[in-house]
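Box S1 | Example of a co-folding query
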Amino acid sequence: MTYIARPRLHHPTLVRNKVGYTRRDYEGKISTLCAGCGHDSISAAIVQACWELDIEPHRVAKLSGIGCSSKTPDYFLGASHGFNTVHGRMPSVLTGANLANRDLLYLGVSGDGDSASIGLGQFAHAMRRGVRMVYIVENNGVYGLTKGQFSATADRGSKSKKGVVNADAPVDLIGMALQLGATYVARGFSGDKAQLVPLIEGAIGHGGAAFIDVISPCVAFNNHAGSTRSYDYVREHNDAVNRIDFIDLAPEVTAEPGAGEVITVPQPDGTMMRLRKLHTDYDPTDRVRAMDHVQAHQARGEIVTGLLYVDSHATDLHEGLNTVKRPLNALTEADLCPGAAALAKVNASLR
Amino acid sequence: MKRIEAVNDFVVKFANVNGSGSASANELFARSILRMGVPVSPRNIFPSNIQGLPTWYEVRVSERGWLGRRGGIDMMVAMNPQTWDQDLAEIEPGGYLFYDSTKPMPKSAFRDDITVIGMPATAICNATYDDARQRQLFKNIMVLGALAVLLDVDPAVIESLFGEQYRGKERLLESNIRALHAGCSFARDQLMPPHGSEVGLKVRRADRVGNRIFIEGNAATALGCVYGGATVCAWYPITPSSSVAEAFDKYCRQFRVDPDTGENKFAIVQAEDEIASIGIITGAGWNGARAFTCTSGPGISLMTEFIGLAYFAEIPLTIIDVQRGGPSTGMPTRTQQADLIASAYASHGDTKHVLLLPHDPAECFEHAAVALDLADRLQTPVFVMSDLDIGMNQRLCEPLQWDDSRRYDRGKVMTAAELESGKEFGRYKDVDGDGVPWRTLPGTHPTLGAYFTRGTTRDAYARYSESGKDYTYNVERLLQKFATAAEIVPQPVLKAADRKTRLGAIYFGSTSPAMDEALEGLAGADIHLDALRLRAFPFPESVRDFIEEHDQVFVVEQNRDAQMRTLLVNELEIDPAKLIRVLHFDGTPITARYISGAITKFVHTLAVAPRREKIA
Ligand SMILES: Cc1ncc(C[n+]2csc(CCOP(=O)(O)OP(=O)(O)O)c2C)c(N)n1
Ligand code: SF4
Ligand SMILES: [Mg+2]
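Box S1 (continued) | Returned holo structure for magnesium ion
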C-alpha cells in the first residue's frame, strides 16, 4: 500500500525547528506494518529525535537489512536516501557508505533475526570497528516477515504463538555489543517513547558505534501469554537504570539540582547528555560494571533499559584509518591519480 | 648421450623447500638474465602452506620472447631431497641435473641420459658460516654463483642487482657478494672441464627486452586501482588475490597520503569475510566512492547474493577475481580460468555481468582502471578476471601507461544544480536510450532527488512495486544496458593469419603468450589460423562476425567445462558444432606445445580445411 502518498498538507501550528523543518518533514511513506507493531513506534521516535536535534533530513542515510523492521526506513525520513540491503548485511553496507562519505549521519535499522541470526557476524564486526552510526535492532524475538519463527534472541523457555517452547539459549546483543567494544550501548522499549527518544538522540550525538536494542513487540506473532517480548511482559519486567535527556550544551545543565541523581556526559559534537539515574549505584561509563549489571538482572528475568554504557571519548573507524577529513567520494583526479610522471618512475623501478 | 645445447632458449627449474629463503635467489637468477637483454618468464609453483613443503621456480629463457610456459625441463636445480625422484624424471633426455652433493647418493639415484653436476653446497656453507639462517641463505647465493658460471650469466650483473637491493646496507651487500664469488670460484675450479663437464645451456647478451618492465599482475592491478581512483578497498585474504590488496596498500601509502596532514586519501578494510567485503564496497559504490574488492573463486561464491543486489539495484562496484583451481578449495595455489560462468551469471534470478579479461600485467593495470570507469558508467558490478599465472608471477610486459589528460568517467550522477534546474529524476528510468538511468548520491539536495534503494521491484521512480509490468520494464532495461556494455568494454584483438584461412581460434587472458607461440609454430607446420583475443564479456558483434567468417573455431581455455565456449554459444547463439574445445585444466599454465598438439590433431582428423585453402 506504499503507493499511497501520505497527505503532505502541513498544519499551520506545526512547529519548525532551527533548520526550518516541521516534524512532518521527517516522516516517510505510510507504514505497511500491522497496526500496533512496535516497529512503528520506533519510527516515530526516530522522527521525533531527528526533528528535535535539528538534523537536516537529507544529511541522513538510512540503511537496513531485510525483515519487517528493516522495511521501516521507508516509513520515516522520506527526504533521506535509504538502502534496504540484503538479509543480515546492513552493517557492511553501512560501513562502506560511511567510508565513502564521513559527513552524513548513518542510521542502521535491523531486526533480531537480521542481526542476531544471519547477520550476527556483521553485527559483531561493525561494533568492533567502531563505525560511527546509530544501529537500532527492533527486537521482537521472532521473524515477523516470515511469519513467526523463533529468532535467536528468543528467551529459552518462551512460547511461540503456536505453542512451541524455545529450547535454545538466547543471543544477547547488548552483552555482545559491550564485549565487542561498542561505545554507546542502550536498551529501550518501543512502548516507552519518553525514554526511547533521548536514547536515540544520545546515539546520534555519539562519536562512534552506538547500539540500541529496542524491545519491540510483534503483535501478530509474539504478543501472547508465554512470550517474553509482549507488551505486558516487558512492562512488568522492565527495570530502567536511568532516564536520559539529550540536550544542547547549555549553561543551565550545571544548575541542575539533585547532583547525586544527575550526571552530565559531554558528547563529541559539543552537545551534552544528561542522565537522571534511577539507581544511584549505576555508572554508565564503566563497561565492566555495565556487563555485570545487565547480566545480573537478566538472570533474574528482568530487562534492564536505559543508557547502559557510554564512552564519551569514543573514536571511530575513520580515525583508526586516518582518512582525510573531506569525504572520499568528493576526491577528484587531482587528489587520487599520481599521474604519468610518477608512473614512469614506477616503470623504471621495474626493469 | 646427446647433450642438450641451446643458447638463450632453455628452461631451468629450481626445486626448493618452502620457507628456505630460495625465492629471492631464484628471482635474482631470472632478473640477471633479463638484465643481459634476454627475455625470461619465471613461474612459481608453490604449495598451500608456509614452510616445509616443496616449491618450484621454473624459468623459461627465450630470446625469441616466448613468455608462456614451455613444458619440459632442460636443467633441474634439485635442492629438495623430498621431490628428488619426481624432479629427476622431469628432465628432458640430454638435460642437466644440478644438485647438492653434500650427502653421497647411490648411483641408482641418477639417470644415465642426463649430465649430473654435484656441488656440496651445504658442506661448503657449514664450513664457512656458523649461523643456521646464514648457512641457508648464503647456500642459495652460492648456488646462484655456480649456476652463473655454468650458464655464462655475467656475475657482475648479479652484483649490480645486489647493489640495488642492498643500497645503504653495506655489510649485507658485501657478504652476499662474497657468497656469490665463492659459488663462482667453486664452479670454475671444480665443476667445469677438466674436472667436470661442460653445460650446453648458455646465456648470451642480447637486446630483446627493450624498455619492458617485469612485474606481477597483482601489483599492476593494484596500481590500476590507484590510478583509476579507487578510494575504498574491502577484502578478505585468499590466495592468489591477497597481494592485490597488499600492493594497493603499499602504493596508496606511496601516492595517496596527504603530504600536509599525513591523512589518507583511501580506506582499506580487511573485512571478516567476502560477504562483508562486497557489502562494504556496495555501500561505498552506492554513496559515490570508487570501490573494489579482490578475491578468488570461493569468495565469488560467497558474494553472489550481493552481486545480484548490485546488479538489480544498479550499484557500481569492481571485483578483481584472481582465479585459481576449483571447485571448492580445489587447487588453491594453481592456475585456472574456471570462474567464468560463476562470475558472468553470478547470483539468483536473471543476472549477467561485465567481465574484463586481462592477458598480462600491463592489461591488469589498464583493465582495473577501466573497470572503475565502466562500473560508474554502467552502474553495475564489473569483474576483472585475472588468474594466478598472471597475478602471482613476475611477467615481462609493456610499461604501464597513463595519459594525464585522462578523466574519470563518473557516469550519470545528477548534481544538486541539475535537480534545482528542474531536470526530471527517475532513478530507474531510461532517458538516454542506453538502458543506464541517472542516479543521485545521498546528501545531494534537501528536497529533491532522494530515493530508496532496494533489491525488491520498484517502478521507474524507485517506488516499491509488485507489478509485473514494473519488473519487466526494469529487467529489460538491464538487457539494454548490457548491450550498451558490449559496445564500450575493451574490444577483442584480432591476429590475422598471414594468408586466408577458414580456421579460427578464440582465446583470452593468461593463455595469450602460449597462444602466440602456438600460432607461430602451427603456421610453420602449415596450419594457419586467424586468432581473436577476447578482452571482455559481453561480446561485441565483432566476435559473432569472426565466428561466422570461419568454418571451425577453436576455443582455447583453461577449464574443464569449456566455459567461454558456453558463453559464446549461449550469448551469440552459435552452432556449438562450430566451436572446437581446446581445454587445459591440470592447474599448470597452458603451453604452446599443448595448444599446437590439440589443434594439429584436430586438423589432421579433419584433414581438409587448411589443405583445401592451399589448393585454392
Ligand atoms: C538470504 C535470505 N534468507 C532468508 C530470507 C527470508 N527472510 C526475510 S525476513 C526474515 C527474518 C526477519 O526477521 P527479523 O530480522 O527479526 O525482522 P522482523 O520481521 O521480525 O522485524 C527472513 C528469514 C531472506 N530475505 N534472505
Ligand atoms: S508481523 Fe509482527 S513485526 Fe511484522 S509488522 Fe506485523 S507486528 Fe510488526
Ligand atoms: Mg524480529
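Chain A has one domain: 23-321. The radius of gyration of chain A is 21 Å.
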